[in-house]
Design brief:
Length: 308
């Protein structure tokens, strides 16, 4: 299984400065988790990485980069990958936590991506409109939206160059024909810098935790020729459905069932025609802007489109 071997070699390289990991042993553990217990590959990799972190007495951001390569920001489509970037600082925002030193937006010719640097990393501060080479940053994922984290091993080099920043937004439209599983009232991991959705009360990285409620919709738009998968975050979901988080929690509490929230939301939005604009990450378009074109004959539009 070549893919598992590649993951095993990457894990071994990350810990080579701290332990003496055996690639064959790591591959066997991965294969056991994936084939015997049906654990997704990325979750299996995280589990083994966490075991080695404990054994080495390390924090995640103390790991070596394990063979990172320079990429453009729109090429980032995996979680927990070590990459190098050549970017300009597009915008800086006010951090919402004392643990965060900086948060903002980086960009290159391919588009933009959010970054976070934590106080514990003790890095020099980035400046708006300044270009940098950032070596050894780690990718993160939230609802299909990728970001990067600067860590204590990140090397920051100022460069005297103007980098043109591209726009990676896309506009799609169609009738909302499906609200996928994992929509409605969900729970996320409460651990700092982790926003993973819980499955049966468990986070894939932090195990069993008391989750924090959130809203989202994972929907499918169909214009008659092709389908587009779209994710609406809490703000976009509240705007789309007219139901806020407190109302959703009360509805679930009254019914003793969280699934009623997605059912209630679906009744009001399925079959309606929407135009959604946002970045495309993986197979999803992330809904930054949503419009409902007026006076659209959805059924007629779909029939006409399918006849082309």
């Amino acid at each position: 299984m070549t893919e598992l071997r590649d993951h095993a070699e990457a894990i071994a390289e990350q810990f080579s400065d701290h332990l003496d990991p055996d690639v064959d042993e790591i591959e066997a553990r991965l294969e056991n988790l994936v084939t015997e217990y049906r654990v997704p590959v990325e979750e299996a990799r995280r589990s083994i990485t966490n075991d080695y972190l404990d054994e080495a007495g390390l924090e995640r951001d103390e790991l070596g980069r394990g063979g990172s390569e320079r990429v453009e920001v729109n090429e980032i489509n995996e979680d927990e990958q070590w990459v190098d970037l050549r970017v300009s600082v597009v915008d800086l925002w006010e951090p919402r936590s004392d643990a965060v030193a900086q948060v903002g937006l980086l960009g290159d010719e391919s588009g933009t991506i959010k970054f976070t640097a934590f106080e514990t990393s003790d890095l020099p501060l980035l400046e708006e409109e300044q270009a940098y080479e950032l070596s050894n940053v780690v990718t993160d994922e939230y609802e299909g939206r990728y970001s990067v984290k600067l860590n204590r091993t990140t090397a920051i080099t100022e460069i005297d160059e103007e980098i043109e920043v591209g726009d990676n937004a896309e506009t799609v439209e169609g009738a909302l024909v499906d609200v996928q599983s994992g929509s409605g009232l969900i729970k996320r991991c409460p651990e700092e810098d982790c926003t993973r959705v819980l499955q049966n009360g468990r986070c894939s990285e932090h195990g069993k935790v008391d989750g924090e409620f959130d809203l989202r919709i994972k929907g499918v738009l169909d214009d008659g020729r092709e389908v587009h998968e779209v994710i609406f975050d809490r703000e976009a979901t509240e705007e789309l459905t007219g139901m806020d988080l407190e109302e959703a929690k009360q509805l679930a509490m009254d019914a003793l069932d969280t699934s009623v929230v997605a059912d209630e939301m679906s009744e009001g939005i399925l079959g309606r025609y929407y135009q959604v604009t946002g970045p495309t990450l993986g197979r999803y378009v992330l809904a930054n802007e949503t419009e409902e074109p007026g006076a659209v004959d959805v059924e007629g539009a779909l029939i006409n489109a399918r006849s082309i």
